[in-house]
Each structure stands twice: as structure tokens, then as C-alpha cells.
Amino acid sequence: xxxxxxxxxxxxxxxxxxxxxxxxxxxxxxxxxxxxxxxxxxxxxxxxxxxxxxxxxxxxxxxxxxxxxxxxxxxxxxxxxxxxxxxxxxxxxxxxxxxxxxxxxxxxxxxxxxxxxxxxxxxxxxxxxxxxxxxxxxxxxxxxxxxxxxxxxxxxxxxxxxxxxxxxxxxxxxxxxxxxxxxxxxxxxxxxxxxxxxxxxxxxxxxxxxxxxxxxxx
Length: 218
Prior knowledge:
By secondary structure, the chain is of the alpha/beta class. The chain is about 45% helix and about 15% strand. The protein has eight helices and six strands; from the N terminus they run ααβαβαββαβαβαα. Strand 5 (about 150-155), helix 6 (about 165-170) and strand 6 form a beta-alpha-beta unit. Helix 2 packs across helix 3 (about 65-75).
């Protein structure tokens, strides 16, 4: 995420990185819940708000995947006063099999699913059904009725997020601009299109599109 943060630094915007329980090497899935993630995010939100208020500068939000869900949750529940919000592959509308995985938890299963992500892009080697359930619970209450300016970037081939439904959501939402990425990830034996976080995962063309768009809006 520091690579994304470097874009904001180009405009002298100070990034504050939020660490979510289960998504760091020093935490585990047993401690994960929707409320736990809300608390994780709220700490960073309060810090950013105080800096923004004291310095009299706008506060922006950037979310990737689950992070986007927590940003929208904070906008609706805490009235987070972001000036603009940027999303890459937001997990608002996930593919059908994510709902199937969530259903397994409801049936009483609690196992972990091995991660197919690149090792250097992940904190854990697996993802618990508890995490999918928590993400589902956060998503269930979202209304998307705010009028904040939103910018969404994603690839049609995203393995986790449903492209069509996400684009439709953006079209229905006020002040939302959707940008399709055509990622050309560097060759690492396999390609993951849910990742668009740096030149290596997005490809140079998509990365420059993300970078230039964000810079033009700050």
C-alpha cells in the first residue's frame, strides 16, 4: 500500500495506513469480526480527521477490496467527511462463489481457505471463513446513498469482485466515475487481476492511468 501512498505524497498529501486484524503477520483470523474491523478503521479515521481539521486541509480516502467496504461503512455510519474517495477493486459486489463461501460458515464450517495470492502481496497463507462472513455483514447494511465523489478502478477479469454489478452500482450512485483497467501484470507464472496496486501487478499502462487520475483529483 505504500506504493499507492506514494501517489498522494506527490501532492503533499500525508497517507495514514490502516492495518486490519487478520491482514497483518502479527494477528490471526480468530480475532476477526465486522466490529473488530470497524474499530481498526476508526482509529485511523480519527487520526486523519484531527490532522485534517487542525491543518485545515481536505481528507481523502483510498480503499482496496475490503478496505473500500470499510470506507463506505464509515461514510454511512460515522459520517466520515471525506472530500473524495478512490477505490481499486472494491469488494462491494463480489462474485457468486464468495456468497457460497459465506454460506459454508452459516452451515457451521470454520476452516481456512488457502490463499492463491502472490506470497509477497499477502500477510497470511490462508483466509478464514470468518473473514468472508465479516465482509458479508459489513456489505449487508450499505445503502450507497451519499453524494461523495467516488472513483472506481477495476479490471473486467477481477477474480473476486463482480465487474458488471460494480459498474452498475457506480452508475446508480451520484458523483461516481468508473474506470475499466486493462491490466497486463508482469509475468510471475500466473496472473491475478484483482491486484492493481503497483506497476508490477497492474502493468505500466494501467498503473499510469490510476496514478494520473488520482493526481488530477487531488
